[in-house]
């Protein structure tokens, strides 16, 4: 060391410790909490929505079973079973008090109102009212199945 050298007494530069990713700043913690809360909220909503629509899935499964059995039975029996299935869905959704006593034109009007259509009171669904009891009336079972399926899906 040279005593006349003024730079000889300087110490070496201290490099700070490298910046690490852990622990994250408070903003990242808040963002993680918001993301977790959003994911939990979406999952809860999906579960509730799935449970809420269970009646629809079950009704569509029963409709598929009725469609599979339709070739083995007469069209009047099939139409009666379709009307019963629609009645079950209506009771599930709107309560027994409002729907259980409906029949004839009132039943068809109810189906039209809730399905936002006129196919029950004015179209091929007319058979599900009192027309089913008329002798030798032609029944288009395929159109009844399609109409019933559309009505269930709209509910």
Explain what the structure shows:
The chain is mainly alpha-helical and 155 residues long. The protein has a domain at 55-154. Helix content is 60%, strand content 0%. The protein has six helices and no strands. It has helices at 26-52, 54-69, 75-94, 96-99, 104-115, 141-154. Helix 2 (54-69) runs antiparallel to helix 3 (75-94), helix 2 (54-69) runs antiparallel to helix 6 (141-154) and helix 3 packs parallel to helix 6 (141-154). It is rod-shaped, with a radius of gyration of 35 Å. The model has no long low-confidence stretch (mean pLDDT 89).
What would the principal axes of the Cα set say about the shape? Answer: rod-shaped
What would you report as the Rg, rounded to the nearest angstrom? 35 Å
Q: H/E order of the elements?
A: HHHHHH
Q: Level of helix content?
A: 55-70%
Count of distinct strands:
0
Strand count, sense and barrel status of the largest sheet are: none
State the distance separating the first and last CA atoms.
93 Å
Strand content: under 5%
pLDDT averaged residue by residue: 89
